[in-house]
Amino acid sequence: MPRTPTTIDSAWLRRFRTVLRRWHVGNGRALPWRNCRDPYKVWISEIMLQQTTVAAVKPYFERFLKRFPTVAALAAADEADVVRLWEGLGYYSRARNLRKAAQAIVANGGEFPATVDELLELPGIGRYTAGAIVSFAFDRAAPIVEANTLRLYSRLLGLRDDPRSTSGQRVLWSFAEKLVPTKSPGEFNQALMDLGATLCTPTDPRCDECPVASCCRALAEQAQADIPAAKRRPEITETHEAYVAIESAGRYLIYRRPEGQRWAGLWDFPRFELPTNVSGERQLLERRIATDFGPRVTLTERLTQLKHSVTRFRITLDCWLAETNGDCELTTPHPTAWVTPSEFARYPFSTTGRQLAETLQHELREPNLFRAVGQNP
Predict the structure, then answer these.
(1) Could you say which of 46, 286, 301, 363 is catalytic?
(2) Does the annotation count 329 as an active-site position?
(3) What's the sign of the alpha-carbon dihedral 269, 270, 273, 278?
(4) How many domains are contained in the chain?
(5) 176 and 302 housed in the same domain
(6) pLDDT (tens digit per residue) in 308-357
(7) Which of 133, 146, 256, 325 has the smallest number of Cβ neighbours within 10 A?
(8) pLDDT at 364 over 80
(9) Is the preceding peptide bond at 211 cis, omega within 30 degrees of 0?
(10) Would 229 be classed as within a structural domain?
């Protein structure tokens, strides 16, 4: 277990809390979910902010609350509607877990849980989110450790061990428990997050403006650039995949991705991983369509090529147009639909699925588009 690199006594805590609160009065971030004691709104914002920037979340937060203003409204919603509003935020299990948790709350009487232990029993709520809801909505003392405070705490402590390891997390959560006061803990936790987000940044922290610089072990050791220890980057794997937009009488085949796959629960066009240095891509995809989905098709155009990343995978994605050869019988066990481009907006797609859908809609408006940009082998 890593040693705690500095001693936190009552004098240190008193000084730290006082100067941080004073700084926050004039420097706190103005966010749509701030100064709100509604646990439902706090919960939605915290789930959206997981692995997503504040700037990206703001419009989603407002649209989501307009459509689902209460926990009861969310619990009664169709999963597809919830995921459709989430489209573009990624990590779609967060949206599905929101709905499941709302249903659990409603089934238990509709009163929002007010303790960390109760909240941890809900799908998709971990230790940080539970502490954020309890402190922000109910103004009860609860520690928080997330991306901004992890960095801040590591520097304050001079923690050179990996803060994401089990032992590092133990040190940081113990420190967070000591930091949070019983008086106005919600405001205090927001101040910690704001300090980490605005001054104690990942690179080039603004130490000369930091109100708690005198409390910082990393600054004293001139180790800000080395703390926290860099997260180990996964080795990138290059992959080649293909989309096939199968058209029949002006409609396109889409299917709902099953559990256990990327983007589970979203609708998508048939998508296949391709072997390295594949030759005869057309013939391979035509066989895969027949085997996995049923229809016999002819690939007619390679519409475009997309590049995107998912976790450690960097994906080159060929997008093809195909026509059925008269037989549209489907053999896939997954839910499917034949839809016109005007109906695409009703379905939640992955980001790349939406890009292909928009390409097809554009083709209807400008029918010579594919002839101009298509890349036939």
Answers:
(1) 46
(2) no
(3) negative
(4) 2
(5) no
(6) 988 888 999 999 999 998 778 899 999 999 999 999 999 999 889 999 99
(7) 325
(8) no
(9) no
(10) no
CA distance 63 to 93: 19
318 burial via Cβ count (<10 Å: 0-12, 13-18, 19+): buried
Helical spans, DSSP H, in the chain: 10-27, 39-49, 54-67, 71-76, 79-86, 93-107, 116-120, 127-138, 147-157, 166-179, 185-198, 217-220, 281-292, 351-365, 369-373
Q: Are residues 268 and 216 in the same domain?
A: no
Q: Which domain holds residue 47?
A: 10-220
Averaged pLDDT, 38-48:
96
Listed residues 192, 220, 248: the one ending a domain = 220
Per-residue exposure over 361-375, b if at least 16 CB sit within 10 Å of its own CB, e if not: eebeeeeebbeeeee
Check which CATH number belongs to the domain holding 121 and give it: 1.10.340.30
Q: Which token pair is 260?
A: 């256990």
Report whether pLDDT(376) > 50: no
Mean pLDDT calculated for residue range 14-37: 93
The token pair at 80 is 């597809």
The percentage of the chain sitting over the pLDDT mark of 90, rounded to a whole number, equals: 75
